[in-house]
Write a structure and sequence with these properties.
- The protein has six helices and five strands.
- The protein is α/β, with parallel strands linked by helices and 171 residues long.
- Strands 2-1-5-3-4 form a five-stranded mixed sheet, covered by helices on one side.
- Helix 6 links the parallel strand 3 and strand 4.
- Helix 1 packs antiparallel against helix 2.
Length: 171
Amino acid sequence: MVLIAFAILFGGLGAFSLSTPADSDATTAASSSAETVSQVPTTAKAGSPTLPPKSSSAAASATAAPPTTTASTRPAAAVDHAIPVRVLNNSLVAGLAANTATKLRTAGWTNVTSGNYAAGTIRTTTVYFGDNPREQAAAEAIASELGAHAVPRFAGIATAAPGVIVIIASG
């Protein structure tokens, strides 16, 4: 029985790690089911068999108690779309930063500017944030929209004006 619980738990975790934001509802249900199964054996007395709840209402109440959120939905709830966003072109493609800035404005970002980044070469498109948690949430949301990574600022841009910095490396 314990092995079955672990198999379900690891199966749910595997499904969760392979999921995309488009099917987050399915993975939330899978991880909730895994949490329910993993909680059942811990409440049983030594030597007594444990069974999952028989009624669906009992299972619903067991999974409803701990709120389940995914990483992709948590930042979206706290994202401030008015945070300054600077999109900088670090590629040889003319107008790439301007096109990306337009895409972000269309997605609801209200304070977006574009320009060039010539202080070095960035290998992949990256979204940078400062020490402000609101900047981090915004950077993670923008990175998700662009298919990029959000990381803390590096020394070369650490003292730049507050806001999110997107450095575009290629089209």
